[in-house]
Amino acid sequence: MALNNQYLILDPNLKRIGTLTVDGATKFSNDSVKIQLADSDTTSTSYDDDVSVGTNDNFNGTINLNAQSKKFDHQGSLDVLQGQPDSDKVVAGNNLAYYDELSGHWYVMYIYSTDNASSAAVKHVTTANFTNLCLYSLAHHYPIATTASASTIQTAFNECFNATGWTLDYQTTNVMTPTITIDGKTKASTLVQTLIQTYNVEIDPYVEIDSQGNITKKVCVITDKLNNDVVYNEAVFGKNMTSIKRTTVSTPVTKLIPYGASGSTIAAVNDGKPYIVDDDANQKYNPGWQAGLYYEAVVTANSINDASGLKAWAQEMLELYNHPRTYYEVAVTPTFNPPLGATIRFKDELIKPVLDASGRVIQRTISFANPYGNTVGFGEYTTVQVATPAWLEGLTSALDDAVSKAKSDASTIVPTILHPDGLDFATGETSKRLILTAHEGNENISAYVDSLGFVWGRTDDNGNVDTSYAKTGYLNNVLAGTTGNIRAQIDGDYITDNPEISINDATWIKFGSFNAYDNDVNRVMQHAEQLSDGRWMTSQADCTYTLRDANLKYVSKMSVTNGGHGTSFGVTIENSTIYIFAPLKTTTGYDLVKIPFTAGKTLDTNGVTHLLSFDHYIRVNYDATNDYFGLTDTSLNYYVLKGSDVRNGVYNVLYQIALTDYGYDIDTQIYQGQLLDFPYVYFQSGNQNDGDTCQMYAINLIHEGECFNYIYDFTDKLGLSGYIEPEGLAFATVNGTKVLMNFLTSTVGVNTIPKTEYFYQVSVTSRTPMTASDGSDDDSNDND
Description:
Shape: globular
Number of helices: 8
Low-confidence stretches: 41-68, 380-396, 776-784
Largest sheet: 14 strands, mixed
């Protein structure tokens, strides 16, 4: 049976009794179906008038930000002209079923009321108002009373849905056990909204239907985040957005007065004050801040008895309300149809201030009769993070959120032990590497865990703890025969606010510059490496290598036939001869070769030393300090090999990552340079000439955690104007200090001459290591 553009009419027993179509025997019009995961502060319900979503926490003050905005709703209406074959079946008490292609599910909507109207111009019209059958069933069900008890999510939802005919499908990792009380007087529809907020989950109630249109099963999915793995296409005004409405839905709160159980306050743990304030937000949003005025609000957590827990909860709530919360409703073209819960980016450069943001789809309104009337509501529940002017900063927000969540509740961290060398010891092998990583949800937060937070232990064959074995750090080399007894955990007291390395944004300095076409080089520079004696070797797009002195003055040049683009290379000095490690095109692919720098010469395949062969293009890095090679293939997989192995022609990968796992879009971003400084790899992309945002990434190759994704501000931080293209990256020693070098090509206009090559230096800050006295071992999470 056709699925699109129709509604099946079902009787109270869910048997099919008719069909409504756009152009069939019984036509409908003006249909509008709205489904939501959370409130936008603009919605209301009509089928269940005592649903309430308040600010009452009911478990130990560990509520997640924005969870209280969660509210599932699914309802709509349509018009049917009377006098058609199935018109008289569209009555209150019957049901309508429709198919949603995005979810692949059928939904049954209970008709809870109808309106009849007529005019001299048209026949009588019936307007049917309907809501999801699951919500209607819950609105007429009262769960049996239970006493207050610590409840798993399965226990709580099972009690809410008991005897409703709906089967629960748990697709959640939730392990919370808040105290839940059922009084026997509260509708299940009210309770389910409370449970959604309490456990910070989302639901999707649908039905299974046979080929005859008969319902065979009613299912309600309970999941942490619906369609959390879906990142949909970008929405752009004038392309797939036809209109947009931006609404500020709340006034910032800068002073919060929390009350706990029986009216208790936080005064005992807050210097006698029963309130907390946010002075930064107050100065930003409150014109009366100099007179000591605040925007005040009261919140209540009925089940929090401990004053410290109440204060901690209030501080989280203040983070939610200390800024204007914005909601976006967008009219979209029929072809732009993201599923509920998916993440999208959306832009409108005409609206003031400029809209450049990303957020989850929290509401959808669809129409089969008028698909051009479809709308989508975006936001992180009631709050959307706007990232103007550099919306790509939003790519790191998920990591920031994960770190924040892990700091507040270490029990949610998932430790994972990686075995890059396998588990079986071959003859002669004496040790193997074990790598411990920390994940919060789908985010690898390992770069935000101090070395002391990676804790290793050992048990004997009887399961007894070996108290003599104690190690920390994310990399552990274990002896043969011990891997099966090794255990590991993440100590939550050593989660930090800062990654292990970061760019010190205040330290940008121009090191030097030169004309891209001086001394007949005639090509834009791609990469540069500082030699151990302070001189510089640079590469150009036609694989010309140029030697410059410590002040970047031209000395000499050479070239290599079929040497490629010159994107990156490595250098070393052996017996006073400069050698270059780079790719060379062959008849079967590319070789990693060692090139002797020979001024004024053009070398071919016979004038170089061939080390490794590949059937695809490669980019090459060499970390001379640690003697590691880094290689990138065409899919931007990055591989690390020992220098000794490469020199002996041995291809043995020690570590590897996929750069596309860190937000890099290989189809839309312009890849530039890469740099290996083991254990870190840096890479950058972008070109202002082509409108691609310029940014730099850093990843720890061992635990695979992202350290930063840095967005360039060429005007304010580097003092550059015109059109900028970042090229390569390298580390150098300047005045005795190791600094990161960034090579930039600048022009006055797009694709114009002259072009200037700029060398900029910036400091990379390493996080100060914590000491054992900085934390305790109360909060940790185990794995083996």
